[in-house]
Every structure is written in C-alpha cells, then in structure tokens.
Amino acid sequence: MDQVHSRALEALQPFVHLANANSATSPRFVANIITNATSSPHTYVFAELLETPTIQSLNSPDTPDEFRGYLRLLEIFAWGTWQEYQSTPNLPQLNQQQTLKLRLLSLLTLSATLKTLSYSSLMAALSITDRSELETLVTTAIYSSLITARLSPASTPPTVNVTAVAPLRDVNVHSLPTMISVLAHWETRCNDVIRDVEAEIKSITAKAQKRQADERARAQQLEKALASSSSEGGGGGGGVPLAQRKGGPHPAGNSNNKREFTADDDQDDDGYWDDGAEGVADQIILPSRMDIDEGAGAARAGPSSARHAKRVLGKKS
C-alpha cells in the first residue's frame, strides 16, 4: 500500500511543477490544471497541488464566478466524497474520468470507516443504480491496489468485505483541531496506563523483596535452632558418655565390673564340657542351661552316669 501512495505522489508532480513554474495565474489556466490533475488515472492525492500559490489564487475576489468552484472541487477530490459533491452547488461538471476517480476516492473513505459494506449502502452513497456497475467499480479499486476486499454477491444482504485500505486520502485542514484533540486525549490515556503499569510493577517488586527477606529470616532462625540443639545434645547426660547411657561397657579399671557368663560367650566351644573341669561343672548352674531332673534312675546310676548325662545335655542347641 505504501508503494501505491508513492506512485500517486509521483503522478501528481508534473501538475505541481506546472503550477509553480508558470507565472501566469489566469483563472482559466488554473482551472485547466485542476481538471487535468483530477482526470489523470494515477493521481489520488492532491494536497501538495492544493497548497501552491497558483491554485490558491482562485480565492482572489477578482476571480470570475465560473472558475471559483474549481478550488472547492479540488478540495473535494483531496478529502471529500461523492455525496459532498452532489450537495455542493455551483461546482463544475465532471467528465467520465473525474466521475470514476471521485467514486473510487469515496469508496476509499467508506471502506476506512466501515469494513463490511452492503451493496445497497454503497449504491446509495455513490449514486449507482446497477449492481453490475457497483461490482465493476469495486473490482477496479481492487486491481488498482486501492483496497483489499472480497465481493459476496450471494450473501444476504450482498456485501463487500474490505480487509485493507490504501492511505490515499488527504487530511482536511479544517479537521486538524479535532484530530489534535483526539490525539491529546489518547496520549493522556496512554500515560495513565503507563503509570498504572509502573505502579503495579513496583508493588510486585516490593512484595517479592519482602517475601525473600522473610525466607532469609526463617532460614536464619532454623540454622540457629539447629545449632542450639546440637550444642545441647553434646553436653547433656551429666557427663556420662552416650555409649554408657545406652548400657554400653564401663571404662576400664572399674573393680565392680562383673561379667555374666552364658553358654553363648565362647564361640569356639565344641558343645561339651572339658573333662578336666568335671568337678567344677557339677557345681555350677548356668543361667542359660535348663536344670535337668535326673530322677531316681539317674541317682541309682551313680555319679559317673550323672556326669556323663550333664556332658551330653550341656551341648549347645
């Protein structure tokens, strides 16, 4: 679309040079420049030509009435519409090229305000009575890269769906104060949004910093608690080592230490009592052995039988 605007500016330059180079400012000459510029098939912007002193000379009180309307006609081509031309009196008659050009420019303005255009609304705005003529106009605008659109003649109602519009309409100088006011209001709203976003960012940052500080404080408290618990565990128990408090052996040199013997203490025992200690074994009652009732038969068998029974039954299970 920017290339279309550049081509339109290039197409207008010969008329601008002609208006600036010629010192003659006769109303008829100026009217011819306007007619030729608005009839050219590639000119769609006219603000630069409209600002030249030669064109503005038509505002002179000495300008004949038949040429006064040309300046207004050029303004309509610059930023007006077909409806404005129809409602403005004392304007020159348009030739076929000018009629097509003004309708195309009016279609650009309508497409910029309404993306979905019905056939009926376009035909009323452009003074077209035939649907095929409207479709031809829209097709010309599409192939000239003025708009990007799609015709939907079978829809209800038939519509023209516009998706892009070339920036080819000039800005009305009388609408500049309104545009400045709208832009100033938009700038104020943007500044308000920026301030709200910055305030929200500061709030989120402050909350994140506070959360990090709380986490660091909790971590320090946990470390202090763990250190205090460790120091108390190392010095507790009244000076008695942890192994002794759990029933471990007493330090060496304690004369009161007594060992309790069981049959499981000697891992190398073969399961029988030594014969050399038979007399002693007969007198010792081991806590892990079962007392054996020898009975009357054992008593009759004599001491040697009793000793032999003890040796056998004394075997580890």
From TrEMBL:
Give start-end positions of Low complexity composition bias.
295-306
- SMART domains noted in UniProt: PINT (SM00088)
Q: Which UniProt keywords apply?
A: Signalosome
**Entry's InterPro entries?**
COPS7/eIF3m, PCI_dom
PROSITE patterns from the xrefs?
Answer: PCI
Please list where the region (Disordered) is annotated: 209-317
Pfam families given in the database record:
CSN7_HB_subdom, PCI
- Which Gene Ontology cellular component annotation is one that this UniProt entry carries? COP9 signalosome
Q: Spell out the Acidic residues composition-biased ranges.
A: 263-277
- Residue ranges, compositional bias (Basic residues): 307-317
The highest taxon in the source lineage is Eukaryota
Every PCI domain range: 1-165
As for family, the record states: Belongs to the CSN7/EIF3M family. CSN7 subfamily.
What is the name of this protein? PCI domain-containing protein
> Which species expresses this protein natively?
Penicilliopsis zonata CBS 506.65
